[in-house]
Each structure stands twice: as C-alpha cells, then as structure tokens.
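Objective 1b: paired records.
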Amino acid sequence: MYIDDKIFGDLEKKEFLSNRKIEELEKFPYIEIIPEDPTPKDEIKVIFTCTPSQNYKTIYYKIKSQTSEIQEVSIEIKDVIWDNDFFSFLQILEAQIPPLNKEGIIEITLNPEDDYEKDYFSFSIDEFEPPKWSQESIIYHIFVDRFAKDNFEVSLSNNLKEKLGGNIKGVINHLDYIESLGINTIWLSPIFKSTSYHGYDIEDYFEIDPAWGNKDDLKKLVNDAFERGIRIILDFVPNHLSYLNPIFQDALNNKDSKYRNWFIFKDDNSYESFFGVKSMPQINLKNREARKYIIDAAKYWIKNFGISGYRLDYAIGPDINFWTEYYYSIKRDFPETFHFGEIVDTPEYVRRFIGKMDGVLDFYLFKLIRESFIGKKWKLKEFLKIIDLRYKFYKNHIRLISFLENHDSNRFLFVANDKRLLKIASIFQFSLNDIPIIYNGQEMGANQYRNMLEGNRALHEYVRLPIPWDETKQDLELIEFYKKLSRIRKNYPALYKGDFTLGPIKDIISFYKIYDDQKILVIINNTKDEKNIYLNGVFKNLFNNKIYKNDLIIHPFEGYILLELNH
C-alpha cells in the first residue's frame, strides 16, 4: 500500500493557501521584480499587488551597501484584477528603477517614515551565479551520528534519540567508498555543538560538538575529500538555535540583555520557537545584529575550513530580507560557494528565493516521483508534461536539487517494497538537470523497520538508523547499479545540462536529453507488462554498451539510458 509522507501538510489545502495569501497581503503588498535576479545594467520593474486600502503614489529606495540618500520613484496603476480569495478588487501598481551600474542591496519602503528594520522589501543587484562545479554535482547526504564511528559501524541502541557515536572520522575513513560511488559532493548533517543527536539545535555556531569530532577532524575531512575531487557542504541552521545557547540564556534571564531583541519575547517572558518546540527558540532575523552574527558564523567555516557551501535548514523560517543579505554578503566574498535551501512550500512560493540563494531542494518533485513511480497516481503524459513545465516555470534562474528520500521521510524502498522501483526512479532522477542527492544507505538498500508516520507522529529516528557496513547486510548489486548510474551521468553532459524534450514512445516514460552532439533517449517501463518498443534509429545502452537497432523489448519496471548513434 502506498504511504503518503504528507510532506506538504496543510499546503495542499486550498483554504490554508487562501488564508495565508490574505494574511500576507493585508500586512504588506506582494512585490515582484522583473528581472527576477537583476544585474547592475538592468532597468528594474517593481510590480505591487495591493488591496484597495493600500494606496501608494511613490516608492522609496536606498542602496544598503552605500551611504546614499533615499531615492523616490513614482508608482503608476497598471491594472485592476478581481481576486476570489479576497472577494474584492486588487490593484496592480508598477514602478521603474533605472540601471544603477553598481552592485548592492536595494531596500524599498512605501512610506519615507517606515522603519527599515521592519517594513521593507529588499533584493540584490549583482552578477552572482551558482558555481559551475555545482551543475556537475552528485551529492551524498550523510547523517553523521549514524554513518560510521571511526572505522566501525555505529551500534544500534534501544534509545534512538541519543547520540550513537557516528563522527567525522567515520566519514574520513569511508571516503574511498564514497568516491567509488561517483560522488563529488558530501552534505553533512549539522556538526556544530549540540546536545541532540541530529544537531539542528545549535549551542555554539563556532564550535564542533566533541561527540562528532573537532576542528582538526573537519580540516582533514575537507582536505582528504578535496584530493579525491569531493567537496564538503555543511548543514546550517539560521532560523533557530538551542535554548542552551549562551546568547539565548542571556536574553531569557535578563530583559536588559543586548541579545533580548535577537528573539521574540512576549510580556510573560515566553518566546517564539521552531514549531512551538521550546528547546529551539526562533532567532529574530529582522534584527540586523542577529542577522550579522549568523552570516558571520556561516562565513567562518568557509574562510577557515574550506567549506564549499551550505544546505540551509528551514529556509522559509527567516524573514525573506535576511536571505537577500545572506546571499549577497557571502557570495561577494566567496563566489565559488554553493547555497541551497530547504523550502517545503509551493513552487510559486519557492520562486521568491530566486536571487537569494543558488538552489533549492525540490520537494514538489519528491512528491511527484513517489506518487508516480510508487503510487501510480499520474497519467504518463501528465507526469512528463509537469516535468517539462517546471523547467519553464523556474526558467533556469535557480538550481533544482532532487532526492528520492531524506532524513525526514520514509525511505523509498520501505514505501515501494520493490528494488526495481527504486532503480527506475533513480534512472529518472539522474537523467534530469536537477542535482541528484543520494541519502546515505539508499545505494545499499538500507531500510527501516517501522513507518515514520506511525500513529500520526513523525518518528524521524526510524529513517536515521545506523548504516550497515557489513557487506552481508548490503545489497551489493544495488551499489554497483548506483556506481554505473553516477558514471553515466558524469560521462554524458546531456544528462545534467541537456534540453528536456518529450519522447515519442507511448505507454512508457520516454524523453530525450539533448546537448551539443549528444542525443540521449531515456525510457522507463513503470508497469507490470513487457513492452515491445520500436526505435527509429540505432542506440547504445549506456549501462551495458549493447546496441539496439529499431526494436527493443523492455521488461516490467526496467529502465534504459540510450545514446542515439545515428542522429
């Protein structure tokens, strides 16, 4: 039976989205800029969607990176639309900011007396891009505490909520294995000082937790990995920290603390926290001092340890203006780093982060793949058309990052209960331009013994079990499959930067990837029936180098990556 991980929760309810839209728009107009990621040479069109009560004639802007005066630009009404959610008319207003011919952060307000600490919208003018190396990345996601302890397997405990001993040395000692998979980027779960086994509640942003190692271990990992052509990305948590963090303790116990405004306290001294978890107080990143502290912490590990970037936890939590400053500040100093966000939201909402980070984890694709390959919920034509449309929707303005499972979801194999489905879903994943992630253990058939959502509770520990290093507990054939898949993707750029074109074959998944003189046909049979396929040409199977001329039999739950030889 198909298990829905319910990754989007209330976001799939129209009423929730409608109420959120109304609430946001009543506070501040919805602002869109064209182009979405402007350069110093661009004229910038600023479009406002406003309620009838939001009557503006002028916008005010300044360049944050300079001591410039506030500039004024007039607003013109361009259109009036009817909105069913508001059951009212909305105004579409427009303003033009001329080319500035210099880089910087633009901060816009709608009232010259507005507090720039609160009521403003920002974007950066720059020429930053995702580093070229990121396009070729194959990411291996390691949950450090459960991966390996020095050179040994982490022992399973009855208490899965405690630290089990995995450490940085365990990652170092398995670099040869990771390299053999064709991996060129490692994403580590948080390694900063924390009492929890997962590390998402940070006590000190500038220290490594002793349970996971020390700074020398991290330096060795970065250096040893880089010698193998592997980059290290850390998991960074800007939205919240541990209640044991000395900064929060000072703010909690002293109303006159200089850190008091770094958090959102109420009159009774209660405070905002991550999903109401009081051990994880939320950082007020509208406060510029708190913002600077977090950005400086991120820079510290890049500058001193050669970290290649960050996976940004719960990126929808911080104020959107924080991400403008984070991205501009770090990319200005470290342009070759890569920063991608965990944004569990609609694609429409995700687009707000264009120009504010290099990439995003594509949770919509995660849902789409599971529903199609396991749940059989989508018609083939509709499924492939959605894949095509999403590229047009994002317009290559932000890197999309794909995954079949992670530390917050049931493992794909647990839900599918069929290795063949995992393999064909992986073929599909590795044939897209999206940067693919393998969650540690996925490649060896690691599984779980209970449903993570059992009893309507998210019991994440079941998908964070120790990795089995005893080969008798590994699916060696599956490991070899992933090695081949990574090698094929690396050797054929059409797979990671080719144009996506719908294929000619009915009743199965088929699409072309085309780049320069490479034309690759991907065909996947996600049915229980054998299919006789007519191929118009000569093709080579990149898994086994077998040549096919015109005819091909594809078995149930089987997939091929075929190089066209005669086009």
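Objective 1b, second protein:
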Amino acid sequence: MSENPIFDTFNHALKSKTITEAIGHLREAEALLDSSLGSIDLKVIACLKKIVLHFDFQIVRFAAKLYNKICSLAPRNDPHLLLDLSNDIFLLCENLKGTEIAEELEAGVKEILVHLIQHGGLEKEQLEIVQQLLDKKTAVNYEEALKPVIQDIQDKNIFAINRLMDMFSSIPTLKEQFLCYGTQLEPVLDALALNANEEMLKKFSRLLENFIFRVHYNVKLGGFEDGSSYNHIYKCSDTRLLYIHDDIFYTSLKFVQMLQSFDKGQNLTLGVLIRRLWENYPKHRPSMYDLLIEHFKKSSSSVDETIKGNSAKFLYVILHSTDVDGEFKGRLETEVEIENLFKHDKYDEKSIEGVFEAEESVDIDHIQAHIGFPLSVQIPSGEKVQRVIEVQEPNSILVWGFATEYYDISYSLSRVDLPQPQIIIEEEKVSCDQAPCLGVRLLHSPGLYRFIWNNEYSWFRSKHLRFKVSLIKPTTITKNNVQDHKEIQQLITITHPDKMGDLCYSTPSIEVLEIGVHISQNQILMLSHNIREESLFSEDTDLHSLISQFIEKVTKNSPELYPIKKIGIVEKSAKKREGLDTLGAVAVARDVDAVALFSEQSLHSHTLISVVNDDGLRSCVVHKGRILLSEDGECLGDVSRLNIQDPIAAISTLLSVFGPAVVVISGKNFIEHLAALIEKVRPLVPAHIWQKSVIRESVYASSVAVEAASKLHYLHYRYKFAL
C-alpha cells in the first residue's frame, strides 16, 4: 500500500479481472478526487494511462470523466506532470476524434498548455513541445484553397461549387468544417456579390443545405403492414455545430440574402433554408425581419402553390409566437403585398401543431442526414482507419454513407465498450467507387460504436475514402399527427415508480440494486448480485416480506451503497401487486416478453422468437427490437391465443410465419433434448426459412426468466420507444 489512496485505487482497477470490477474502482477514485483525498502525481497519471491501454474502449467513458477532473485538479507547479497528462489525453483523443468526449478533453488540455506558456518555468525543449501541442496546424491552407474557387466565380464557372465542396471534404472534422464555413468564406461571398448569376447561386444552395441542415425527423419505425409500425420524433445530434461560432449564422444569412436577390418566388429550397434559420437561431431572429418581409412578398405572388402554402403556414407561426417583436408583427399585418398569404387555406391553427420538417413521416430505412460534407482520408495499402461514435441515448439511429475514388473497400461496425466487442455488421468488402454505400441502423443501447474501413487485404493500392456518419436521437416531443404509444403497448409496466426513473441508467456513477423476481405456478425465484433464493409460492404468500428479507440478505454487508432499488417481477400473466412501493421501484411483465427482449439485446437478430413452456406454452416475436402487436395490443406471435400447446407445432408455425429468425426456448416443460426437438421441427419449416434460422436455448438456461426480471427496468429504459 502506498500513501496515496488514488494511486492504490487505480492500481486495484488495473489488476481487476473484469470490466465491472475495474469500473467499480474507478468510481471509488472519482469519489476520492471529489473529496480531495490523495494527491495527483506522476504515478497516478502513469497508472491511469495503463488502465486505458489495458481495457481500451471498455473503459474510455469512465476514464474520460477522470481525466477531466484531473485536468482541473492537477498541480499547476509541476510542468513534467502536466506535459505527461496532456500527452496521454491527446493520445486518447486521437482514437475518439470527432466525438464530444474528445472535444471536452481537448478543451481541458488546452487550458493546461496555455497556463504553462503564460507562467513560464519551462525548459526550452518543454516549451517547444507545448507549442507544438497547442499550435496544431490546420489541415488546409484556406487562403490558398479558396483562390481557385474565387477565380472560377470571377470567370462565372458554375463548377466553382465543386472546388469548394472538395475543400470542405479535405477538412478533418465536422467542427472545423463549420468553423471554416462561418469564418473563412468572406472572400467567396464578395466574389459572388460581384459575379454571381441565378444558375451559379442555385448550385451554391446545395452548399447551404449542408450547413443549414434539417434538425427534426418524424421517423416511422417497425415496418409491418399489420399496424406494428409507429412514429417517433428524432433530432440530429450534431446541432451543437450550428452554435460554435456566431459567424456561422451571419454567413448563412448573407448567402440566403444573395439567393433571395435572384429569386422570383420559384425557389422551394430557399423557403426551407429561411425557415430553418428562423427555427435554429431564435436569438438572431431580429436580423431576419427584412429578409422575411421580402420572402413573404415574393411567395405571395408565386404561381407555385407549395411555396405559397409553406409561406402561409410560416406566417401564421410567426404571428402566433409569443417571443416575436410586436412591431414586426405589425409590419407583417399591414403589408399589402402579402395579403394573399393571409387568405390562403394553409394559414390556420394547424400550422403551429407539431414540429417543423417532422410533419410527414419518413421510413427509418429512407432517412438522409446532410450535415457538413463527407470527411476524406487516404488509406494506404495494408492499413485501416476507424471512426468512433458515442451513442448517449437508447434507440438512436445511425446513418452513414461512404465511397472510394477507385476500387473497393472492406468495412465493419461494432460496439466496442463491452468485454467482448459486439458485431453489428460483419466485415464485408463493398464496391463503392461508382455509387456510395449507404446504411441506417437503429441502436437500442447507448455505448461506443466503431466503424473500421480495412485496406489490409490490398498489397499495392491505397484507397481514397470519403465518409459521412450521422446520429439522430429520440426526443420527448409529441405532436398531434404522430401516433402516441398506447397503454396496451406498454409490455413492461412500471407499477411503482421512483423519483430517479431512468436517470440511473444514463448516469454510470449511480449505484443501483437490481432484484429479479420470477413467479411461476407454485414457486418464486429471486436473484440479485449472483445471489439466488427459491421458495414455494401461493397467492397467500406475503410477497413484500419475502422480497424485503431477500434484499436484506443481499445488502447485509453494505446497505448504504444501494439507495436505489429496482425490482422486476415476471410471471405468466403480468399483474400489479399492491403493497410493494416501500421496497423500491417495481416493474412487471409477462415472462415470455421479458425473455424475448432480454435475449434480443445480446443476440441482435433481425427477428427473434421467444417460446416459453412453463405452466402452458406461450410465445412472442421481436422484430427490429420491437415486440409485434396487433391493433388491439395483443401479441401477434403468441401461440397461446391459437390454442397450440405442442412445442413442435408451435415452433414450426412461428418460423413459417415470421422466419427466418432465432428461436430461443426456455421453461421447465421442454422435456425433449434440443437436438431431437430441432430434428422434428426441421421438416415442417420451408427450406429457405430453415436455412437462415436457429433454434437454441438461452445461455442462462432455466434461470433466464429471473435474469430477465432483474434487468426489467433497464429493458424498459432501453426499449421505451419501441414498446
């Protein structure tokens, strides 16, 4: 033992056999830092670096929190320590380039480096290192790169926009692209003001759509025609890029004003761009008043009914907004040239219902996210590149596209912050030199996801890759024309909520005690922290007392560690049981539904069928992370509704209707050996379905129901937009 408890705790984390144990020690270290117990020295910095190298992406999000704290607490009179700390953080950020984690860490390091320069005390070599770290040269010399663009504009060459797009793609991060757009394009704007024509400006509107981008989407999830699809409002996670510099707004405003000067009321895109500016920059709205007056005048006289209708709706929104200046409203109301918009049938209260650009739903597979321009990278032969994406919200949607200038490339997608990386897309070689490779994926779990583009198989050819990766996340916004989740669709019901709610699952530092309870016909099984207890059960059993005693047993050595208790109860038919609210938050569900969702999160199958044979046969089907339901809320794939009680007939029917799929069987009444069951089912299923299907037991065998019960609150958190 050393005299520094922070180092000792880090050392315990380094020696941990599991990631869970290591994270526990890191939380202890975080508490020590908060309480100023122990000191930050070179041994602490070196040990944290070893932890990050040892556990890699599994530990990154926890290590980042510690590095941020250490940056603020590290002694400012030790240049050697500060340089080591800065270098370690920059190395970590290199693997996380483009994520908010990296941006936050880099901001903390820059403060340290500025301090070192301002307060002196550095040796010559140290000063050179600090200046190199601080003075990162931009990847592009903007002045030189813009010269041919400006020349093309002066020559009235409409392909000037292509040069400009290529320049943006050569910038290594989206953040730098937006900074360049906001702060470096004044010479381009000046050249356009003198030389632009209508055709050239139409080309430049393509540029604007990537920097004045769409924020909200009304996403249709699911996809079956039987009513199983549902809608939810999503929001682009990159909206922070709009606000990193005020000049981003003013550059956009100048471009839009220039477009409008050539508009004759026929440019549908222009109206969308103006509305986006209004919605995205509320504090800058007064700067848009003159622009809006002119826009409404031209729209009012337009022969295009879509343009006129959109402007009428926009006008209604402005005049019925409480945060718009009364004088400006008066100007609009007295402007003779826009009277037609007031008389338009789209000028009504429906205009303020819902969310802009989320009025119409878009199928998840057809989402297009245009934020900035594709990033560019050269991949030498025999090498590969990666891109890490931090997903903070469950049920976020990942949207991507990439292309090579010549030849094919291999790529894969996986979640990497787990003890074993979870493969989302197996590595595959694709030809994308003629048309880009596009993809969309609903991600049920928060975490770190990694794309790898692999050129290791090529001996001679390097690959020039351009790629875009965007994330849109679910919001809590509801609107009248979006189907709200019906009560009958709440397959996991929180019967006794607590004040913490789902927050504990998005905040790793909060300790939660999860207790699983599986009630069968005459038995109850409880599980928590690998402690299991089984006893007889009847409706006369005092369930409160039984669970309370079990919790005392589990927490007898450290009751104060678990102020938050989450109890999940699963049984054949879910029911609310009274008198449990004093124990903690309580959730209930059918055992077959809980097992299905619990299994889906580890197997990641496109379609999963859960079959439970315990006090009767029952089943459910999970498709794309959602249990399939009929219009009346009944499970579509439940064989108990069809009075099928023969497992062989049930499984073959389910596969024939919903397959290909992974079938997970559980329950004590499966008396046949799995291999024998498979052989009997095989001839009853169409060959093309059988070839792509799997029948298996859960890895938790007979205890899968109680395991699922212990994670019931987490499953509710993870699937709350899909249930």
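The longest helix spans residues 100-119. The radius of gyration is 30 Å.
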